[in-house]
Amino acid sequence: MQKIRIGGQEFTIIVKKKMMRSMRLRIREKNQLEIATPWLTPNIIIEKFIQGNQTWIIRQNNKIGEKLKLNNIKNIEILGERYEVELKEMKSDSLVIIDNKILLNYSKKSQIKEIFDKKMRNLALKLIKDRVQRLAQKYKLDYEKVGVKNQSSRFGSCSHSGNLNFNWQIILFPEDKFEHVILHELTHLTVKNHSKTFWEQLAEYDSKWRENNRWLKKEGTKKFIV
């Protein structure tokens, strides 16, 4: 991995060469860039690509707050409901939610996050699918599939074919912010960009969209667990 300074900050760069036609850039974690490039792209072109996107890199990196460390967490909230988190070293791995307690057993400390992500994704997918279905029916919107991912800074996305993907950790948001993310992506089913029309349409579904949007920008990624 390489190191580079951008806007006075040091970034780690991960370069992945693939069968593709153009370069893509994303922020994996705070101060960590991933560049996907065609196989034969010379380093000087990669460097120019990074330099040409400095403003975007700094802006996106600043959106990523200091995330919570799972090993240090005693409580989390799922859609505004508080759960006590208990980690215990055992012979086998498991995660069970009982009576507002999340009991996570692990055989190796290094696998705690993996166990947590895997089990919580299943819960998140159920909660998100249910809310998407109800809101889509309410506003007479048609979508294709719903999926969940674990991303460092994105909350959700809507493909041109109508597939919806969400960061599973949005279930750690207050319920109104959680619903705002879903309504944002549902709005993209009819308006693909962020034009004035998009925000006017979103306002019909979420009267507090400005307030919710500000919260996401300031507090959203701080709720994510690493």
Task: Give the topology, please.
Blueprint: E1 2-6, E2 9-18, E3 24-29, E4 32-38, H1 43-52, H2 54-63, E5 75-78, E6 81-89, E7 94-98, E8 101-106, H3 112-138, E9 146-149, E10 156-158, E11 164-167, H4 175-187, H5 196-205, H6 209-219
Parallel strand pairs: 2-4, 6-8, 9-11
Antiparallel strand pairs: 1-2, 3-4, 5-6, 7-8, 10-11
Helix pairs in contact: 3-4
Key words describing this protein structure:
11 strands; four-stranded mixed sheet; 2 domains; single chain; 226 residues; globular; 36% helix; Zincin-like; alpha/beta
Quick take:
By secondary structure, this protein is an alpha/beta fold. It has helices spanning 43-52, 54-63, 112-138, 175-187, 196-205, 209-219; strands at 2-6, 9-18, 24-29, 32-38, 75-78, 81-89, 94-98, 101-106, 146-149, 156-158, 164-167. Helix content is 36%, strand content 28%.
